[in-house]
Prior knowledge:
The chain has a single domain (5-263), classed as TIM Barrel (Alpha-Beta Barrel). The chain contains 7 helices and 9 strands, in the order βαβαβαβββααβαβαβ. The chain has helices at residues 22-31, 65-78, 98-108, 136-146, 149-165, 196-208, 232-240; strands spanning 5-9, 36-42, 84-92, 114-118, 121-123, 129-131, 175-176, 212-216, 245-248. Helix 4 (136-146) crosses helix 5 (149-165) and helix 5 (149-165) packs parallel to helix 6. InterPro entries: Histidinol_P_phosphatase_HisJ (IPR010140), PHP_dom (IPR004013), Pol/histidinol_Pase-like (IPR016195).
Amino acid sequence: MIYIGDYHVHTNYCPHGSNDQIETYIDKALSLGLKEISFTEHAPLPENFIDPTPEKDSAMSRDDLTEYTEIIQKLKEKYQKKIKINLGFELDYIEGFDHEITHFLEENGSIIDDAILSVHMLKNPENQYVCLDFSADMFAEIITQFGSVDKVYEKYYQTLNMAIRADLGKYKPKRIGHITLIEKFSKRYPPKNNYSNTIEHLLENISRTNLSLDINTAGLFKEHCQQIYPDKSIIQKAFLKGIPLIPGSDSHTANHLTKGFHQLPENVKFARPV
Length: 274
């Protein structure tokens, strides 16, 4: 199967990524024969939200926002005859911060070509926020806070459903990110319950709201997951529901562009952002 683009790519503006320059990603994309690439850097978190990770490195700095957008705009012009470059963001949906997220989108939406809406942050029973995918050890602490693995899973899917249904204005991202990110540590901390019905309900809501799905290969290379986000059976269900499936490597280094694409199912049709 031939893939024309990688639609979930990070940059050197990601504080938990590599120092590879944006142009390095573009050159790598050209060497792979790609016709399109979406830079979807982690958008700055709301100013009144405290990043719960130890290094406070979940997202790009607000101070870098202008430089990030200006560089990509210049590179779009420079490479316009060789590859389509999309300027975008991966936005965190954070429960209780709909207004702040909408405000960011209103301020920047006119220049956004492509965007992903993801859930990384959960509100725990003490009304404090946690980052669910930071590390296996931190996930163990989150389990303790919630009381069980399954309560963490339930909260994740509840928050993801909030993201799908949220009214974030006319610039709301059209794509929902890695809907099974909660499974990042599933081989170490497996849930007792089966969430197939919950995911089926999420897919119905994604279809009903005319959103697309991020098919993210990064999970293949996570020690405690080793599966695509979401897995092939869910991809097949989404495809049968007519949900557009957008492939992305979630690369944080140029050498990881399209990494794992060869393991994507061949019996479904993948799409590009619209």
